[in-house]
Amino acid sequence: MNNFKYRNPTKILFGKGQIENLATEIPKNSKILMLYGGGSIMKNGIYEQVKSALSNFEVLEFGGIPANPEYSILLDALKIIQDENISFLLAVGGGSVIDGTKFLSAATLYEGETPWELLTNKKPVTEGLPFGTVLTLPATGSEMNSGSVITRAETQEKLSFGGPGMFPVFSILDPEVIKSIPQRQLANGIADAFTHVMEQYMTYPIGAKLQDRFAESIMQTLVEVAPQVMSDPSNYEAASNFMWSCTMALNGLIQQGVPGDWAIHSMGHELTAMYGIDHARTLVILAGNHYRYNFETKKEKLAQYAERVWNITEGTLEEKAHAGIEKTDEFFKSLGIDIKLSDYTKDYSETGSTVAKRFTKRGWEGLGEHKSLKPSDAQKIIEMSY
Length: 386
Known about the structure:
By secondary structure, the chain is an alpha/beta fold. The chain has two domains: about 10-175, Rossmann fold (3-Layer(aba) Sandwich), CATH 3.40.50; about 185-385, Up-down Bundle (Dehydroquinate synthase-like, alpha domain), CATH 1.20.1090. It is built from 13 helices and eight strands. It has a six-stranded parallel β-sheet with strand order 1-8-5-4-2-3, with helices on both faces. Strands 6-7 form a two-stranded antiparallel ribbon. The longest helix is centred in the middle third of the chain and has 23 residues, at about 210-230. The protein is globular and about 65 Å long. The model has no long low-confidence stretch (mean pLDDT about 95).
């Protein structure tokens, strides 16, 4: 196991009715900007719960943050923060709203030429305006980590940033919110969380037995509860396990002491930037072929995954590893998710070469756990996924 340092300062309030406790988590006399997405919180009762809990605060609102938080829209919110002397941000939404709020937190205190430099200079962000979250869509884990991904439509870019200053002060996780989430988004959330675990797990053995079993338990739980969540989102037990699995998948715990891959995400972000495909679905498109292409370096963990998550005990190491990849594809398809790029766009013939050129331009010459995946390799994986 590798050396590591781990700290996660985010306070979690989990369970039914926790939104009522919102006011106790925000400093008194705070001037709050409440941020949300397309307005679903107006229909499912969350908006009223949050406003009621904050009745003794001055609260301004900014809605309309899209599913891929757009830089130009966030700049409008940034102006409000600066003009109105906002002192606390509250994200009420899923990962996109939370990611957008993290960007605003950092941008408010950023002293460089343009806030987009937060995405391009890759320097860890050490301070930001304090913020909390009310999670409405389990998926990304952004409610308990310090990372964020922002889209810029004018340049067709989707880039990430983060740092120790980007942890939420607190996050409220009420599993009852999933009752009103559409099937497509539920499927996306399950697939997103599952792939987050694989990016941190599907590398090579390093003797981190507990970390492996943490990761495997999250994947096992998602496989177990997925049919229940999809068929009956009002099942509180299933919803609770789903929500907490999504948070645990990317709160930093399972990545400690082990190598990480994240090449699937790097490629997937490009597909979203180019075609607007849901983030989770870009991961599904690429995952199986990424493992097939890098089979020799990943086969030991693939076989372990097949045994422990899918109970595949017969066959050689290679046979079990291949079976694990097939089970992964089948799982994603069982959620109603198409797994080929050609299912989402017919204009894909140059996608692989375009992504490779973008990676080269940014100097991304070594992706994956071994830092050996070249832009030309990414091109081949994407072409396999047509």
